[in-house]
Amino acid sequence: MNPADRLTHLEVGEWEVVEPELALEDVGHAESVFALSNGFVGLRGTLDEGEPAVSSGAYVAGLYERFRLPHAEPGYGYPDFGQAMIHAPDGSVIRLIVDDSPFDVRLGTLHAHRRVLSLREGTLTRDVDWSTPRGRRVRISSTRLASYEYRSVSAIRYTVAAVDQQVRIILQSELIANEPMAPAEGSSKDPRVTHVLAQALRPVAQERSTSGALLVHRTKRSGLTVAASIAHEIASSADAEMFVETRPDWARTSFVAELLPGESLTITKYVAHATSTTRAVPLLRSQVSAAVSSARHDRWEGLVARQAEHLDAFWDTADVHVTGRPRLTGMLRYALFQVYQGALRNEGAPIGAKALTGSGYSGHTFWDTEGFLAPVLAAVLPDACADVLRWRASTIDLAKDRAAELGLQGAAFPWRTIDGTEASAYWPASTAAMHINADIVRAFELYRWVTGDESLELDGGLPVIVETARAWISLSHEGRSGKVHLDGLTGPDEYTAVIDDNVFTNLMARRALLSAAERTGRHPDLAAQLGVTDAERAHWAAIAENMFIPYDAELGVHPACAGFTRFDEWDWERFKDKHPIQNYSPYFEIYRHQVIKQADLVQAMWWCPEEFAPDQVARNLDYYERRTSRDSSLSATPQSVVCAQAGHLDLALAYLYEAAAVDLEDVHGNADHGLHMASLAGSWLAFSCGLGGYREAPDRLVLWPQRPDGVEGFGFRLLWRGARVTVAVEADTVTVRQEGDAPLPLRLYGEEIDLGQEPVARPLRRVEPLLPEPEQPVGRAPARLS
Amino acid sequence: MNPADRLTHLEVGEWEVVEPELALEDVGHAESVFALSNGFVGLRGTLDEGEPAVSSGAYVAGLYERFRLPHAEPGYGYPDFGQAMIHAPDGSVIRLIVDDSPFDVRLGTLHAHRRVLSLREGTLTRDVDWSTPRGRRVRISSTRLASYEYRSVSAIRYTVAAVDQQVRIILQSELIANEPMAPAEGSSKDPRVTHVLAQALRPVAQERSTSGALLVHRTKRSGLTVAASIAHEIASSADAEMFVETRPDWARTSFVAELLPGESLTITKYVAHATSTTRAVPLLRSQVSAAVSSARHDRWEGLVARQAEHLDAFWDTADVHVTGRPRLTGMLRYALFQVYQGALRNEGAPIGAKALTGSGYSGHTFWDTEGFLAPVLAAVLPDACADVLRWRASTIDLAKDRAAELGLQGAAFPWRTIDGTEASAYWPASTAAMHINADIVRAFELYRWVTGDESLELDGGLPVIVETARAWISLSHEGRSGKVHLDGLTGPDEYTAVIDDNVFTNLMARRALLSAAERTGRHPDLAAQLGVTDAERAHWAAIAENMFIPYDAELGVHPACAGFTRFDEWDWERFKDKHPIQNYSPYFEIYRHQVIKQADLVQAMWWCPEEFAPDQVARNLDYYERRTSRDSSLSATPQSVVCAQAGHLDLALAYLYEAAAVDLEDVHGNADHGLHMASLAGSWLAFSCGLGGYREAPDRLVLWPQRPDGVEGFGFRLLWRGARVTVAVEADTVTVRQEGDAPLPLRLYGEEIDLGQEPVARPLRRVEPLLPEPEQPVGRAPARLS
What is the DSSP letter of B733? Predict the structure, then answer.
């Protein structure tokens, strides 16, 4: 996190991310940053020829394997099986041999190597100028895409041209299963687990076609079948020969041509994937063949054109900009672009913490998805938000089983999962993190507020709201004074665990219980089917009402949990160069000190703003800023939002920048494992909720924009109840417009406005800080925007 | 724990434990109960012929293997390696073939099968009357012992006699390495770990002698060499032939004889073991050969006679009795006998929770050893107590390394270990259980008080006291009010963990810090060598003085830890038949409720009695009795002692009985994994400290005897400052006598007496209970003595 260690070699333009030359030592970082996806298929930004690579890989949403978890000391309720995303058969590989030299950027002479990710085209292009060790020079260009139009399809156009001598070209276009995986951060180093994952796919069928091949595999334990198909088109100014080979774990289409100087060979490769637990091999085989045929029918040019059309529509809805700050603008757009890619065609699978950009966190989905991704999707891609929530609702029976196993009523959703069952092996930071259940309910609520769509509650949402409310009742208990406590849980901050009355958790539980009471009132028939009585609803409301929120009156701050402000202070000096602290100190020491990984008390002030008076916000922020390590990538966003809320706009901007830079500049040094989707989504939240003062509210769109001195202006767009809203801040004025038919209820700086066709402009306001800008621990200040 | 499920088929006499007939379903239980040991070698009470068995095995103190711990989710400071006691080459096996039928209690007809463990002879004898499936009848008798005189030696005499027909007898006397292990309770089920342990020994050398053989093996990772030798003497009324075979993992001496009715064959088998990390194979080979020769020189009769001599001396020092209660008397003697066996010739290895009676808890040593075993040994076998403490002191450098790894000053001893490094994979109930450091210091203190021997402090004790005091300083911090807190630790009760201000821990830390301040004052030169300054000593005293002890003034009880009495109550009804609770409910639920595994607040009232007023004792006991599951075998003892302290003598007697019965009646259903050494030692503590009112004190022997209505009288003996003291309670009088030369300072019922040669008799007193007898949760009341 040390700013000096950041990677800054990527050029971020307003609409593109450019790697001007190859940085061999950062090849894994580039694989993640240049990942392409449509939410169903994902391709890491590997070099076409497959090496050098940190983790070459293709992913398919929901494709995973189970394995027995090795518990050194077993305990009741520990999951027996882990889950890990596995590589799908990878169709991105095109190997090139020039005469008898394999093209490898580490060999011969690399005259130029440039890659461009276009945020408007939805393509990754690569231009290479290379000579073999014996001096034969070629120019290579490739463009790849994951089709936004065709869910199963990805495609690559690859051109090689002879420059100044005749060369023999061999292109080997491959489809490879069971590629080795890079070990995921924080996951088991157990060699058996690694072995399971590396050899996860068992070959089922292989077929050749005239221009490609098809492989079908099945996982050994999770019961998934995956089919992958490749097909090729060839264009060459010279004669070219093509032939196809298949083996159980790979298929290869080879092209051979002799190119005179100036001649070139171009192949277009269409790749399709399909997976299923239920469909049989013939159906999957037909499905991928049809997908390839359909894509070929559009031809390459058609596929490319559709990409841009999709993105044009998206940016019309969702564009963001910071006036005069092209890099920051590009970073925010990149973040939204990757959120879009990760969610667009997901349609029924969980979105992992890294989406389909890497195998970090084993591909698991956490509370991040509902907590950070869903609110962005609700505002800019609401159908994808609904998909996310529908997937979660589809796992309700597993969550009920888990609650029963734990001895709780209702439903307890897993902390980390792919298939809906718990996959975490460390219960103090997973099973105990019950707040995920409230975070899910909040996402249902925000979706309804932002879209106005109540149908999701009838389509599986209400059982989630009701059953998690029942779990909160099991978890809570009334103390002697009549106040309700939630003991022994873990909040979002993982540098405390198994604590009592975590403020974030208690407030979110209160919110979830009130939501359950209210929503069951709205849907009495469905509520009755779920066995909800008036007495139960009243009990939820009473428990919510009486929820205990600890407060340290002596210091005038909320302790993050009972007793937190009493704990010993952390020795920041000793850890000033040590990031993250958990790699240098045991949980044992961390948990007993006032050291915060991610600022959950601060996040509570964002998500439950009605619970905190402005002076409390100011004092709490001041207190926790001094004690937050920001070792979690989920921390900068809430810190940014609440700094804006408290009037510390420069600091808000610095945290916003950090959230947006998390992968482009590799803030945490682990972007090679995949993108930090929640932090990317969080940069939009820091922007719109922080500087923009956007709040989801049940009745109207709420805005409270502020402009930091360091920027000239900024703007963002979102959908509110189906209407496109544009917020533009320039100089000292904010202008809000909407493109819907009906007047849109707006609260701007507290003023209630029915926004019609005419834009509304108001003088820009600033929150007057009640305290000086808060300080951070030594070594933990965020990099300021220059 | 349900009294109805207890095993009651063993007859416990005043000086013996008899198994009148074989209980095939409880064969593992008998293996533990009938285990023989001298503290260095241990033999489980397996049937001579090796099967059926739950875990046939021989053990050698300190013989263990290391293995990589499989952490499903790794964390900083987690130990990389586990440790597990492994089987030594087993010389106890003597197989018998009658004609062509192998002797197996499950085949043919077992007319009679009786085993007797003699607490005066130190032998296990077995008498069998058996017919082969074809009706050939033999009588078999065997006697085995682990020599108290010769540390390396165990021996068996085995006789088989023909009854009414001529039979051909083949005896195969074996020495077997790498026998499979029964999996230890609570340890990894990881198949690789099991494999490591099953195949832990690599053969190094094998040799035959005229009457036996020798095997040398080496562990693969822990670097230990173990040599085992067997030799035989034969006596027969018929001709017998003998021959010897060896293989890398076994050696066999076979005897063949034809016996006419009335004729018999007797072999005497001498077994010796030696182990070392440093000595080379030739030296170990010589050592075991010498041990066998020495034992043979004494002959069988000599070995047997020496056993009884040792035990006579022990019982002269340590005998206990309950008048008119032969079974209870025998159970208490059995408990002391097994403590004696586990500690006698240990001499420098750790004593595991099961000593050498089984592989439960992987053979690890815990705080049990210093907390429960050492106080008994100090009073009845002080040299063995010194050995225990010397072993602990020898690991000080490893404990300093561990403290440094954790970020603490000083030394932090491991929660479970064999080689001195931490072997626990679940930190909330191990690393966080820092009280072990104070428990160790208490054991040094008790040893000094009871024996008057200060030399142990000079011989490694003072560094333990000083360095653990330094760790307490690191762990503690001063709160705003000036009070000192110990946050995020775990007390002896493992149904709470990572809690703040655990009363037991805080009081024990106070005691340890005061001890450090005092002892460094007594040894200023040594203290100076350890870098102790007057300022540091003053700081220790000040921290001890200001230690915060939470108190719930509203309820008038001490919370076991901060906030405990605020937690939700446990649903005892749901778990009334579920023992232990942790097998039916996750830690997640357990930790957040008022459910106690072992009563650590109650234990604090025993170990730190000066900190509690009598009315507090009464209220605390009442409160915690209602919330204690007694799922730990360490719980009955402190409950017994404090019940006596509070005047609830019937209940004290019930808990005393439970502690003594833990293995004989298999109270916890897991005695097959080995004996519960701390509970066995604890039964003596419950007896002497509970009914006897014995307290270790710096200046004088303290007694406060009480007689429950259900017993006519009782007596116990101990050594105080080298003088044998006898306490006898009969009817309404207590008599105390001593056999030392000098007057012995005694405090009897608070009266200070210099006890000379003349016994002192006083009328028996009773504590008047301040509250009615406390109640236990449903399903948790102890069985009452009928």
Answer: E
Vertex A191 angle, CA A190 and A194, to 5°: 95
Structure tokens at A233: 């088109």
pLDDT reading at B503 higher than 80: yes
Q: Which residues contact B313 (CB under 8 A, 6 or more apart)?
A: none
Residue of chain A whose alpha carbon sits nearest to that of B592: A488
Task: Measure CB to CB from residue B477 to each of A188, A477, A568 and give the nearest one.
Answer: A568
What is the arithmetic mean of pLDDT over B312-332? 97
Q: Is A480 on the interface with B (CB under 8 A)?
A: yes
Closest CA relative to residue A497, chosen from B427, B561, B402, B565:
B427
| B416/chain A closest Cα distance in angstroms | 13
The pLDDT-based confidence of B347 (bands split at 50, 70, 90) is confident
Rounded to an integer, what distance in angstroms lies between the CA atom of residue B174 and that of residue B235? 18
Query: Tens digits of per-residue pLDDT, A770-786?
Result: 999 999 999 999 999 87
The DSSP H or E segment spanning A295 is helix A281-318
- Where is B727: in which H helix or E strand? strand B723-730
Q: Using one digit for the tens of pLDDT, what is the confidence trace for B283-307?
A: 999 999 999 999 999 999 999 999 9
Q: What is the DSSP letter of A165?
A: S
Residue A719: pLDDT band (50, 70, 90) is very high
DSSP string, B352-404: PTTTTS--GGGG-B-HHIIIIIHHHHHHH-HHHHHHHHHHHHHTHHHHHHHHH
Question: Does residue A546 register a pLDDT over 80?
Answer: yes
R_g (Cα) of chain A, nearest Å: 27
Tokens, residue B606? 């025993």
Measured distance CA(B711)–CA(B723) in Å, rounded: 28
CB A32 within 8 Å of CB A663: yes
B546 CB-near residues (< 8 Å, 6+ apart): B478, B482, B483, B484
Nearest in space to A49 (alpha carbons), one of A105, A118, A130, A99: A105
Q: With CB atoms and an 8 Å threshold, state whether B563 touches A563.
A: yes
The catalytic site residues of B sit at: 494
Note the ipTM here: 0.93
> What is each CA distance from A661 to A59, A358, A471, A719, B502, in whole angstroms?
24, 18, 38, 25, 44
Q: Kindly tell me if the per-residue pLDDT of B385 is higher than 80.
A: yes
For residue range A552-597, list pLDDT tens digits in order.
999 999 999 999 999 999 999 999 999 999 999 999 999 999 999 9
Q: What is the pTM of this model?
A: 0.95
Q: How would you list the strands of the sheet with B751-755, edge to edge?
A: B701-703, B744-748, B751-755
Question: What are the pLDDT digits (tens) for A228-250?
Answer: 999 999 998 888 899 999 999 99
Average pLDDT score over chain A: 95
The span from the first CA to the last CA of chain B, in angstroms, equals 17
Contact A76 B585 (CB under 8 A): yes
Pairwise CA distance, residues B191 & A70, whole Å: 9
Q: What residues in A contact B424, CB-CB < 8 Å?
A: 73
pLDDT in tens, B175-192: 999 987 666 555 666 666
Q: Does B551 touch chain A (CB under 8 A)?
A: no
What is the rounded CA–CA span in Å between residue A338 and residue A343? 9
**Do residues A565 and B382 touch, judged by C-beta distance below 8 A?**
no
Query: How long, in residues, is chain B?
Result: 786
Provide the token pair at B317. Answer: 């020092």
DSSP state of A461: I
Taking the C-alpha atoms of residue A511 and residue B373, their distance in angstroms, rounded to an integer, is 53
Provide the β-strand partners of residue A649.
none
Query: Residue B714, Cα to own-chain centre: how many angstroms?
Result: 24
* C-alpha distance from A1 to closest chain B C-alpha (Å): 19
Question: What are the strands, taking DSSP E only, across B440-556?
Answer: 476-478, 484-486
- Cβ of B485 and A566 within 8 Å? yes
